[in-house]
Design brief:
The chain is about 5% helix and about 55% strand. The chain folds into four domains: about 120 residues, Immunoglobulin-like (Sandwich); about 90 residues, Sandwich (Immunoglobulin-like); about 120 residues, Sandwich (Immunoglobulin-like); about 100 residues, Immunoglobulin-like (Sandwich), CATH 2.60.40. It is mainly beta. The chain is rod-shaped, with a radius of gyration of 42 Å. It has one helix and 38 strands.
Length: about 425
């Protein structure tokens, strides 16, 4: 682009000194062709010239730009003045206005006289638009890079001043057209009151020549689902999995806005839990989505409690994502066996030996546990001894009086923790061989 502009600068200097001849130049050419902006802010270029009440033809000539097909004939005796709407000039080009003597029937009968070269550079688009919540609405800020070098400096249509372009704020929603929500501004910030996602905020950037869309920010909605385990071993982390889907708005100037789904990585996810009935929901774990919008979060457990997963409201550059919450799901805790077995790990002992069998559980509760033995004749578990458990530990020492193979287990009852029940459990089978 920079090389093209250098070529353009040389070419403009060459063209400025060029003389164009017509096939029939019997009449004197107009003089003093000049251009200026129409008064009262009308979007038009005023062309003026001098001649002796001759009919005239006006055209637009491109300078290293394609010439638009604009021709206007001015009858003899009419004022030597004409307004060309800015829409007749292609954007981002360099042009001259050529005036000659002539009519639509008789053709051109003089040399062409041209105005100075001028450019039709459009506005510089805003970049780095950012959004932040403000009350019930949003605050949008944007920056505008420096304008590219002007290779027709001080041309007669240059608009002077530091703020030569304006920004018209627009909002689009699904199924609706983009609509203007406020007056044009020269500032680099806009407050939009009482707006909720989904929406697209866009700036229609204007200068004296054209309008462009840019400076976009997105307000997205989110939805989240979750798979929460129904049971959990006390203090053993569970894994909660699910997916987050974002809904964003896309708009064209000439058609209603549409909504589409997005499943990006990096969306924050928070697992909330309610430790006791009626208590506040507090964070239990945090994570974020991976590709496809999926998440998989390890969550530490305690007593039985519900969980729900939320996408918090968050801002990332030009995107603001609204919050969403999964349905609460209840996970019931089960007393966890930390250890169970025979002292010293000795599962084969001599007859008459003293054997100690013990169990330890989490949480460290005080209760009564039952030691059971397997009856091979009835093929049923039979209660052997009720034992007190203190701080999650219970043990029984007994004498191995008879030889043979025996199988024991502990039955641990359920418990209450923070106002909610926990399920009890049984230990694995504990086999003992007596010689």
């Amino acid at each position: 682009m920079g090389g093209m502009r250098r070529v353009l600068a040389v070419a403009l200097a060459m063209v400025a000194g060029a003389v164009s001849l017509t096939a029939c130049a019997s009449d004197p050419a107009p003089t003093d062709v000049a251009v200026a902006w129409a008064p009262n802010g009308r979007p038009a270029v005023v062309v003026t010239w001098k001649d002796t009440a001759q009919p005239n033809r006006i055209t637009i000539e491109g300078v290293l730009s394609e010439s638009p097909s604009y021709v206007k004939y001015i009858p003899a005796g009419d004022p030597n003045r004409w307004e060309i709407p800015t829409s007749a000039f292609p954007p981002d080009g360099n042009y001259k206005i050529a005036v000659a003597t002539g009519t639509s029937q008789g053709g051109v009968t003089s040399d062409l006289t041209r105005s100075p070269v001028f450019d039709t550079d459009g506005p510089v688009l805003p970049t780095a638009a950012a959004v932040a919540p403000q009350g019930r609405g949003i605050l949008v800020r944007w920056s505008v890079p420096a304008a590219p070098q002007d290779f027709t400096p001080n041309d007669p249509l240059d608009v002077k001043g530091n703020k030569t372009q304006r920004y018209v704020p627009m909002i689009g929603r699904p199924g609706q057209m983009l609509k203007v929500i406020g007056p044009a501004t020269t500032a680099n910030r806009q407050v939009v009151k009482s707006v909720k996602p989904p929406y697209v905020f866009q700036l229609r950037t204007q200068n004296e020549w054209s309008t462009r869309a840019g400076g976009q920010v997105l307000g997205l909605t989110s939805s989240i689902n979750a798979a929460v385990p129904a049971l959990a071993q006390f203090s053993v982390p569970i894994r909660i999995r699910g997916r987050v889907i974002l809904h964003q708005v896309g708009c064209d100037l000439e058609s209603p806005c549409t909504s589409k789904r997005a499943t990006p990585a990096g969306v924050p996810v928070v697992v909330l839990t309610q430790v006791a009935p009626g208590a506040r929901w507090t964070p239990a774990a945090r994570g974020s989505t991976t590709g496809g919008g999926y998440y998989d979060i390890a969550v530490p457990t305690g007593g039985s409690r519900p969980y729900k997963i939320i996408v918090p409201e968050y801002v990332k550059g030009g995107m603001l994502t609204g919050t969403s919450t999964s349905r609460p799901a209840y996970t019931k805790s089960v007393v966890r066996v930390a250890s169970a077995g025979f002292a010293g790990g000795d599962t084969a002992v001599a007859r008459g030996s003293t054997v100690t069998v013990s169990v330890a559980v989490k949480p460290a509760m005080n209760t009564t546990v039952m030691l059971q033995a397997w009856n091979r004749q009835t093929r049923r578990w039979v209660d052997s001894k009720a034992l007190p458990m203190r701080r999650g530990q219970a043990a029984l020492a007994f004498k191995a009086a008879q030889p043979g193979d025996f199988v024991y287990r502990f039955v641990i009852p359920g418990a209450m923790m923070f106002g909610r029940p926990m399920d009890g459990t049984t230990t694995p089978q504990l086999a003992l061989h007596v010689r």
